[in-house]
Protein backbone atom coordinates (compact mmCIF):
# COMPACT_ATOMS: atom_id res chain seq x y z
CA UNK A 1 0.00 0.00 0.00
CA UNK A 2 1.29 3.48 -0.81
CA UNK A 3 0.18 6.92 0.22
CA UNK A 4 -0.99 7.59 -3.34
CA UNK A 5 -3.74 4.97 -2.98
CA UNK A 6 -5.65 7.77 -1.31
CA UNK A 7 -6.18 10.20 -4.15
CA UNK A 8 -6.51 13.72 -2.78
CA UNK A 9 -8.25 16.53 -4.65
CA UNK A 10 -8.71 20.09 -3.39
CA UNK A 11 -12.19 21.51 -3.87
CA UNK A 12 -12.30 25.00 -2.40
CA UNK A 13 -12.37 24.70 1.38
CA UNK A 14 -12.60 20.93 1.01
CA UNK A 15 -10.00 18.27 0.55
CA UNK A 16 -11.52 15.13 -0.92
CA UNK A 17 -9.70 11.83 -0.36
CA UNK A 18 -10.74 8.69 -2.22
CA UNK A 19 -9.41 5.18 -1.59
CA UNK A 20 -10.63 2.94 -4.40
CA UNK A 21 -10.48 -0.82 -3.83
CA UNK A 22 -12.68 -3.75 -4.87
CA UNK A 23 -11.94 -5.58 -1.61
CA UNK A 24 -14.57 -3.56 0.30
CA UNK A 25 -18.22 -4.65 0.05
CA UNK A 26 -19.43 -1.42 1.65
CA UNK A 27 -18.66 2.23 0.99
CA UNK A 28 -17.46 4.27 3.94
CA UNK A 29 -17.89 8.05 3.90
CA UNK A 30 -16.42 10.34 6.52
CA UNK A 31 -16.40 14.10 7.06
CA UNK A 32 -13.72 15.56 9.35
CA UNK A 33 -13.84 19.21 10.40
CA UNK A 34 -10.93 20.80 12.22
CA UNK A 35 -11.43 23.40 14.92
CA UNK A 36 -8.98 24.81 17.43
CA UNK A 37 -9.20 23.31 20.91
CA UNK A 38 -10.07 26.40 22.92
CA UNK A 39 -12.40 27.33 25.82
CA UNK A 40 -14.47 29.83 23.85
CA UNK A 41 -15.62 27.28 21.25
CA UNK A 42 -15.10 23.97 23.09
CA UNK A 43 -18.64 23.13 24.22
CA UNK A 44 -20.35 24.49 21.11
CA UNK A 45 -18.07 22.29 19.00
CA UNK A 46 -18.93 19.26 21.13
CA UNK A 47 -22.66 19.97 20.82
CA UNK A 48 -22.77 20.55 17.06
CA UNK A 49 -22.62 16.99 15.68
CA UNK A 50 -25.34 15.85 18.07
CA UNK A 51 -27.73 18.62 17.03
CA UNK A 52 -26.93 18.21 13.32
CA UNK A 53 -27.93 14.54 13.49
CA UNK A 54 -31.36 15.33 14.91
CA UNK A 55 -32.87 16.58 11.67
CA UNK A 56 -32.18 18.15 8.29
CA UNK A 57 -34.12 20.25 5.79
CA UNK A 58 -35.05 17.10 3.86
CA UNK A 59 -35.50 14.88 6.93
CA UNK A 60 -36.72 17.32 9.60
CA UNK A 61 -37.29 14.84 12.42
CA UNK A 62 -35.19 12.15 14.02
CA UNK A 63 -37.77 9.59 12.89
CA UNK A 64 -37.67 10.65 9.24
CA UNK A 65 -33.88 10.67 9.34
CA UNK A 66 -33.81 7.11 10.70
CA UNK A 67 -36.32 6.02 8.06
CA UNK A 68 -34.00 7.38 5.38
CA UNK A 69 -31.12 5.35 6.83
CA UNK A 70 -33.35 2.26 6.71
CA UNK A 71 -34.16 3.02 3.05
CA UNK A 72 -30.40 3.06 2.41
CA UNK A 73 -30.33 -0.65 3.28
CA UNK A 74 -29.62 -0.02 6.96
CA UNK A 75 -26.90 2.58 6.48
CA UNK A 76 -25.11 3.60 9.68
CA UNK A 77 -24.65 7.29 10.53
CA UNK A 78 -22.63 8.58 13.46
CA UNK A 79 -21.17 11.87 14.62
CA UNK A 80 -18.84 12.76 17.46
CA UNK A 81 -15.89 14.90 18.52
CA UNK A 82 -12.37 14.02 19.59
CA UNK A 83 -9.09 15.84 20.03
CA UNK A 84 -5.76 15.35 18.35
CA UNK A 85 -3.09 17.45 19.95
CA UNK A 86 -4.65 20.88 20.24
CA UNK A 87 -7.15 20.40 17.44
CA UNK A 88 -10.80 19.62 18.13
CA UNK A 89 -12.16 17.34 15.40
CA UNK A 90 -15.83 16.99 14.44
CA UNK A 91 -16.42 13.69 12.67
CA UNK A 92 -19.40 12.36 10.75
CA UNK A 93 -19.40 8.89 9.29
CA UNK A 94 -21.76 6.96 7.03
CA UNK A 95 -21.39 3.35 5.96
CA UNK A 96 -23.56 2.11 3.10
CA UNK A 97 -23.79 -1.05 1.04
CA UNK A 98 -22.28 -1.09 -2.44
CA UNK A 99 -25.09 -1.47 -4.98
CA UNK A 100 -22.90 -3.81 -7.04
CA UNK A 101 -23.68 -6.49 -4.45
CA UNK A 102 -27.44 -5.85 -4.39
CA UNK A 103 -30.17 -6.90 -6.80
CA UNK A 104 -31.49 -3.36 -7.12
CA UNK A 105 -29.27 -1.08 -9.19
CA UNK A 106 -30.23 2.32 -7.79
CA UNK A 107 -27.20 4.44 -6.96
CA UNK A 108 -26.79 3.99 -3.24
CA UNK A 109 -23.54 5.96 -3.44
CA UNK A 110 -25.35 8.97 -4.86
CA UNK A 111 -28.16 8.66 -2.34
CA UNK A 112 -25.77 8.13 0.59
CA UNK A 113 -23.44 10.98 -0.31
CA UNK A 114 -26.42 13.28 -0.92
CA UNK A 115 -27.80 12.34 2.49
CA UNK A 116 -24.48 13.03 4.24
CA UNK A 117 -24.15 16.40 2.47
CA UNK A 118 -27.67 17.17 3.65
CA UNK A 119 -26.61 16.53 7.24
CA UNK A 120 -23.56 18.76 6.77
CA UNK A 121 -24.98 21.75 4.91
CA UNK A 122 -28.77 21.73 5.35
CA UNK A 123 -29.72 21.30 9.01
CA UNK A 124 -33.30 21.75 10.12
CA UNK A 125 -33.75 25.35 11.26
CA UNK A 126 -36.47 27.54 12.76
CA UNK A 127 -36.47 31.25 13.65
CA UNK A 128 -33.00 31.70 12.16
CA UNK A 129 -31.55 29.02 14.38
CA UNK A 130 -31.52 25.32 15.06
CA UNK A 131 -34.71 23.72 16.33
CA UNK A 132 -34.83 24.85 19.95
CA UNK A 133 -36.24 21.60 21.30
CA UNK A 134 -33.42 19.63 19.63
CA UNK A 135 -30.79 21.92 21.09
CA UNK A 136 -32.26 21.73 24.59
CA UNK A 137 -32.53 17.95 24.46
CA UNK A 138 -28.95 17.58 23.24
CA UNK A 139 -27.70 20.01 25.89
CA UNK A 140 -29.28 17.76 28.51
CA UNK A 141 -27.68 14.67 27.00
CA UNK A 142 -24.28 16.40 26.79
CA UNK A 143 -24.62 17.55 30.40
CA UNK A 144 -25.22 13.95 31.44
CA UNK A 145 -22.23 12.79 29.39
CA UNK A 146 -19.92 15.33 31.03
CA UNK A 147 -21.23 14.49 34.51
CA UNK A 148 -20.94 10.74 33.89
CA UNK A 149 -17.18 11.09 33.56
CA UNK A 150 -16.97 10.94 37.36
CA UNK A 151 -18.68 7.54 37.29
CA UNK A 152 -16.03 6.01 35.02
CA UNK A 153 -13.03 6.19 37.31
CA UNK A 154 -10.50 5.05 34.69
CA UNK A 155 -11.55 7.79 32.24
CA UNK A 156 -11.92 10.31 35.05
CA UNK A 157 -8.38 9.66 36.29
CA UNK A 158 -7.03 9.93 32.74
CA UNK A 159 -8.75 13.28 32.21
CA UNK A 160 -7.75 14.67 35.60
CA UNK A 161 -4.12 13.69 35.08
CA UNK A 162 -4.11 15.55 31.74
CA UNK A 163 -5.77 18.58 33.34
CA UNK A 164 -2.98 18.75 35.90
CA UNK A 165 -0.15 17.91 33.53
CA UNK A 166 -1.27 20.33 30.81
CA UNK A 167 -2.61 23.08 33.05
CA UNK A 168 -2.85 26.34 31.08
CA UNK A 169 -2.52 24.39 27.81
CA UNK A 170 -5.51 23.74 25.50
CA UNK A 171 -4.95 19.99 25.67
CA UNK A 172 -6.16 20.02 29.28
CA UNK A 173 -9.72 20.64 28.03
CA UNK A 174 -12.20 17.74 28.02
CA UNK A 175 -13.26 17.08 24.43
CA UNK A 176 -16.98 16.90 25.35
CA UNK A 177 -16.98 20.39 26.82
CA UNK A 178 -17.69 22.15 30.10
CA UNK A 179 -20.87 22.29 32.18
CA UNK A 180 -20.56 26.02 32.82
CA UNK A 181 -20.84 26.79 29.09
CA UNK A 182 -24.17 25.04 28.51
CA UNK A 183 -26.56 27.69 29.91
CA UNK A 184 -25.21 30.28 27.46
CA UNK A 185 -25.71 28.12 24.36
CA UNK A 186 -29.01 28.60 22.55
CA UNK A 187 -30.55 27.61 19.23
CA UNK A 188 -29.64 30.90 17.52
CA UNK A 189 -26.07 31.37 18.71
CA UNK A 190 -25.26 27.71 18.08
CA UNK A 191 -26.54 28.06 14.51
CA UNK A 192 -24.43 31.19 14.04
CA UNK A 193 -21.43 29.23 15.26
CA UNK A 194 -22.29 26.36 12.89
CA UNK A 195 -22.20 28.79 9.95
CA UNK A 196 -18.85 30.12 11.15
CA UNK A 197 -17.45 26.59 11.32
CA UNK A 198 -18.56 25.72 7.78
CA UNK A 199 -17.21 29.00 6.41
CA UNK A 200 -13.85 29.06 8.17
CA UNK A 201 -12.76 25.61 9.34
CA UNK A 202 -10.87 23.14 7.12
CA UNK A 203 -13.01 20.19 6.03
CA UNK A 204 -11.85 16.81 4.73
CA UNK A 205 -14.23 14.35 3.06
CA UNK A 206 -13.17 10.71 2.77
CA UNK A 207 -14.56 7.87 0.70
CA UNK A 208 -13.29 4.29 0.93
CA UNK A 209 -14.77 1.56 -1.25
CA UNK A 210 -15.15 0.20 -4.77
CA UNK A 211 -15.68 3.70 -6.20
CA UNK A 212 -13.92 6.15 -8.50
CA UNK A 213 -12.62 9.58 -7.51
CA UNK A 214 -14.25 11.08 -10.63
CA UNK A 215 -17.67 9.86 -9.54
CA UNK A 216 -17.20 11.19 -6.00
CA UNK A 217 -16.12 14.61 -7.25
CA UNK A 218 -19.03 14.87 -9.67
CA UNK A 219 -21.51 13.99 -6.94
CA UNK A 220 -20.01 16.47 -4.48
CA UNK A 221 -19.93 19.30 -7.03
CA UNK A 222 -23.54 18.56 -7.87
CA UNK A 223 -24.70 18.28 -4.26
CA UNK A 224 -22.76 20.92 -2.31
CA UNK A 225 -23.52 24.68 -2.50
CA UNK A 226 -21.32 26.52 -5.01
CA UNK A 227 -20.11 29.10 -2.51
CA UNK A 228 -19.25 26.32 -0.07
CA UNK A 229 -16.83 24.53 -2.40
CA UNK A 230 -15.37 27.74 -3.81
CA UNK A 231 -14.32 29.15 -0.41
CA UNK A 232 -10.60 29.32 0.35
CA UNK A 233 -9.13 26.87 2.83
CA UNK A 234 -8.00 28.41 6.11
CA UNK A 235 -5.59 26.20 8.11
CA UNK A 236 -6.14 26.02 11.85
CA UNK A 237 -3.35 27.85 13.64
CA UNK A 238 -1.93 25.72 16.46
CA UNK A 239 0.48 27.10 19.04
CA UNK A 240 1.32 23.91 20.91
CA UNK A 241 3.93 24.11 23.65
CA UNK A 242 6.27 21.41 24.94
CA UNK A 243 7.64 22.74 28.22
CA UNK A 244 10.69 21.14 29.76
CA UNK A 245 10.01 19.49 33.11
CA UNK A 246 11.65 21.10 36.14
CA UNK A 247 9.86 19.35 38.99
CA UNK A 248 7.54 16.35 38.94
CA UNK A 249 4.04 17.33 40.05
CA UNK A 250 2.22 15.01 42.45
CA UNK A 251 -1.56 15.37 42.58
CA UNK A 252 -3.94 13.36 44.78
CA UNK A 253 -7.73 13.34 44.44
CA UNK A 254 -10.03 11.65 46.93
CA UNK A 255 -13.31 10.02 46.01
CA UNK A 256 -15.46 7.13 47.17
CA UNK A 257 -13.35 4.42 45.50
CA UNK A 258 -12.03 1.05 46.62
CA UNK A 259 -9.32 0.74 43.97
CA UNK A 260 -6.71 3.43 43.42
CA UNK A 261 -6.06 4.83 39.96
CA UNK A 262 -2.44 5.75 39.41
CA UNK A 263 -1.71 7.75 36.25
CA UNK A 264 1.69 9.12 35.33
CA UNK A 265 2.22 11.60 32.49
CA UNK A 266 5.47 12.09 30.59
CA UNK A 267 6.71 14.62 28.03
CA UNK A 268 8.39 12.78 25.17
CA UNK A 269 9.37 15.89 23.14
CA UNK A 270 8.59 13.80 20.05
CA UNK A 271 5.48 14.07 17.86
CA UNK A 272 4.19 12.32 14.77
CA UNK A 273 5.96 14.90 12.62
CA UNK A 274 9.40 13.93 13.93
CA UNK A 275 11.70 11.30 12.38
CA UNK A 276 12.00 9.61 15.81
CA UNK A 277 8.28 8.88 15.87
CA UNK A 278 8.57 5.19 14.79
CA UNK A 279 11.10 4.68 17.59
CA UNK A 280 8.64 6.31 20.02
CA UNK A 281 5.98 3.81 18.95
CA UNK A 282 8.45 1.03 19.69
CA UNK A 283 9.35 2.62 23.03
CA UNK A 284 5.70 2.72 24.06
CA UNK A 285 5.13 -0.85 22.91
CA UNK A 286 8.01 -2.16 25.00
CA UNK A 287 7.18 -0.01 28.02
CA UNK A 288 3.46 -0.67 28.32
CA UNK A 289 1.69 -1.11 25.02
CA UNK A 290 1.24 -4.89 25.05
CA UNK A 291 0.90 -7.89 27.40
CA UNK A 292 4.62 -8.64 26.98
CA UNK A 293 5.60 -5.09 27.99
CA UNK A 294 7.71 -4.10 30.98
CA UNK A 295 4.82 -2.52 32.88
CA UNK A 296 2.51 -5.48 32.44
CA UNK A 297 5.24 -8.01 33.22
CA UNK A 298 6.93 -6.29 36.15
CA UNK A 299 4.15 -4.24 37.78
CA UNK A 300 1.20 -6.55 37.25
CA UNK A 301 2.58 -10.08 36.85
CA UNK A 302 5.79 -10.26 38.91
CA UNK A 303 5.06 -7.76 41.69
CA UNK A 304 1.26 -8.23 41.66
CA UNK A 305 0.89 -4.51 42.35
CA UNK A 306 -1.69 -3.63 39.72
CA UNK A 307 -4.99 -4.88 38.32
CA UNK A 308 -3.94 -3.33 35.02
CA UNK A 309 -0.85 -1.42 33.88
CA UNK A 310 -0.26 0.00 30.43
CA UNK A 311 1.00 3.04 28.54
CA UNK A 312 -0.14 5.01 25.50
CA UNK A 313 1.05 7.98 23.45
CA UNK A 314 -0.61 11.13 22.14
CA UNK A 315 1.26 11.53 18.89
CA UNK A 316 0.32 15.14 18.09
CA UNK A 317 1.08 16.55 21.53
CA UNK A 318 4.11 14.42 22.30
CA UNK A 319 2.76 12.91 25.51
CA UNK A 320 3.05 9.45 26.99
CA UNK A 321 0.69 8.37 29.74
CA UNK A 322 0.94 5.42 32.10
CA UNK A 323 -2.27 4.15 33.64
CA UNK A 324 -2.72 1.52 36.34
CA UNK A 325 -5.25 0.32 38.87
CA UNK A 326 -3.73 -0.53 42.25
CA UNK A 327 -4.55 -1.29 45.85
CA UNK A 328 -4.46 2.07 47.63
CA UNK A 329 -1.80 0.91 50.08
CA UNK A 330 0.53 -0.05 47.21
CA UNK A 331 0.97 3.52 45.95
CA UNK A 332 4.62 3.99 46.93
CA UNK A 333 5.66 0.54 45.68
CA UNK A 334 3.84 0.99 42.40
CA UNK A 335 5.36 4.42 41.73
CA UNK A 336 8.83 3.08 42.53
CA UNK A 337 8.59 0.09 40.21
CA UNK A 338 7.11 2.13 37.36
CA UNK A 339 10.00 4.59 37.70
CA UNK A 340 12.34 1.60 37.56
CA UNK A 341 10.90 0.63 34.17
CA UNK A 342 11.38 4.16 32.82
CA UNK A 343 14.98 4.13 34.04
CA UNK A 344 15.60 0.67 32.58
CA UNK A 345 14.54 1.98 29.18
CA UNK A 346 16.98 4.90 29.53
CA UNK A 347 19.77 2.51 30.44
CA UNK A 348 19.09 0.48 27.31
CA UNK A 349 17.89 -2.59 29.17
CA UNK A 350 16.05 -3.92 26.13
CA UNK A 351 16.24 -7.56 25.16
CA UNK A 352 16.20 -8.75 21.56
CA UNK A 353 13.07 -10.71 22.39
CA UNK A 354 11.29 -7.57 23.62
CA UNK A 355 12.28 -5.66 20.49
CA UNK A 356 11.39 -8.42 18.02
CA UNK A 357 8.09 -9.27 19.73
CA UNK A 358 7.09 -5.60 19.80
CA UNK A 359 8.00 -5.10 16.14
CA UNK A 360 5.91 -8.12 15.18
CA UNK A 361 2.90 -6.99 17.23
CA UNK A 362 2.98 -3.40 15.95
CA UNK A 363 3.45 -4.56 12.35
CA UNK A 364 0.45 -6.87 12.65
CA UNK A 365 -1.65 -3.99 13.97
CA UNK A 366 -0.72 -1.79 11.01
CA UNK A 367 -1.42 -4.59 8.52
CA UNK A 368 -4.85 -5.16 10.06
CA UNK A 369 -5.66 -1.48 9.55
CA UNK A 370 -5.45 -1.99 5.79
CA UNK A 371 -8.66 -4.03 5.98
CA UNK A 372 -10.65 -1.55 8.10
CA UNK A 373 -11.94 1.54 6.28
CA UNK A 374 -12.17 3.80 9.31
CA UNK A 375 -8.63 2.85 10.34
CA UNK A 376 -7.41 3.71 6.85
CA UNK A 377 -9.16 7.07 7.08
CA UNK A 378 -7.86 7.86 10.55
CA UNK A 379 -4.28 6.92 9.71
CA UNK A 380 -4.30 9.03 6.55
CA UNK A 381 -5.97 12.01 8.21
CA UNK A 382 -3.61 12.09 11.15
CA UNK A 383 -0.69 11.75 8.78
CA UNK A 384 -1.98 14.88 7.04
CA UNK A 385 -2.33 16.68 10.38
CA UNK A 386 1.28 15.91 11.23
CA UNK A 387 2.46 17.01 7.79
CA UNK A 388 4.52 13.84 7.30
CA UNK A 389 2.50 12.04 4.58
CA UNK A 390 3.55 8.65 5.97
CA UNK A 391 1.70 5.70 4.50
CA UNK A 392 1.04 2.46 6.33
CA UNK A 393 3.71 0.78 4.21
CA UNK A 394 6.15 3.56 5.12
CA UNK A 395 5.42 3.02 8.77
CA UNK A 396 5.90 -0.73 8.47
CA UNK A 397 9.33 -0.20 6.93
CA UNK A 398 10.31 2.39 9.50
CA UNK A 399 9.23 0.20 12.41
CA UNK A 400 11.23 -2.66 10.91
CA UNK A 401 14.31 -0.44 10.81
CA UNK A 402 14.16 0.79 14.43
CA UNK A 403 17.27 -0.24 16.36
CA UNK A 404 17.88 -0.71 20.07
CA UNK A 405 19.93 2.51 20.23
CA UNK A 406 17.06 4.43 18.56
CA UNK A 407 14.69 3.34 21.33
CA UNK A 408 17.23 4.26 24.00
CA UNK A 409 17.63 7.75 22.49
CA UNK A 410 13.86 8.19 22.75
CA UNK A 411 13.97 6.98 26.36
CA UNK A 412 16.58 9.61 27.18
CA UNK A 413 14.19 12.35 25.99
CA UNK A 414 11.21 11.13 28.01
CA UNK A 415 10.61 13.20 31.16
CA UNK A 416 8.21 12.26 33.93
CA UNK A 417 6.00 15.32 34.43
CA UNK A 418 3.02 14.44 36.62
CA UNK A 419 2.01 11.70 39.04
CA UNK A 420 -1.74 11.61 39.61
CA UNK A 421 -3.40 9.35 42.17
CA UNK A 422 -7.13 8.87 42.66
CA UNK A 423 -7.66 7.28 46.07
CA UNK A 424 -10.31 6.74 48.73
CA UNK A 425 -11.55 9.16 51.36
CA UNK A 426 -9.81 7.28 54.17
CA UNK A 427 -6.48 7.90 55.83
CA UNK A 428 -4.42 4.81 54.98
CA UNK A 429 -0.97 5.67 56.42
CA UNK A 430 0.73 3.60 53.71
CA UNK A 431 -0.87 5.54 50.87
CA UNK A 432 0.08 8.93 49.53
CA UNK A 433 -1.71 11.78 51.39
Automatic annotation (TrEMBL):
Residues 185-360 form the Peptidase M16 C-terminal domain. One of its GO terms (molecular function) is metal ion binding. SUPFAM superfamilies: LuxS/MPP-like metallohydrolase. Gene3D superfamilies: Metalloenzyme, LuxS/M16 peptidase-like. This is Insulinase family protein.
Amino acid sequence: MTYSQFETISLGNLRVHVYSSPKFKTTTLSILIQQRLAPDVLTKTALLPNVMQRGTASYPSTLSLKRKLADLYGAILFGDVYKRGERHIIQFGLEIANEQYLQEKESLLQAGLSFLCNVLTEPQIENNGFVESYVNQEKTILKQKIESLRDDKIRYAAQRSMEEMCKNEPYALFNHGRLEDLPNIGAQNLYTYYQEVLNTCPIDIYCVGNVSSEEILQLLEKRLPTDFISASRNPIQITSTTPSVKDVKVVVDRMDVKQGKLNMGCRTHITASDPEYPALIMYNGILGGFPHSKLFTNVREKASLAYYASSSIESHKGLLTIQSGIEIGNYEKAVAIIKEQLEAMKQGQLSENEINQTKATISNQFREQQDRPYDLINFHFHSLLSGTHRSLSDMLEQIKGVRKEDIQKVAEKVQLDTIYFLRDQGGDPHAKD
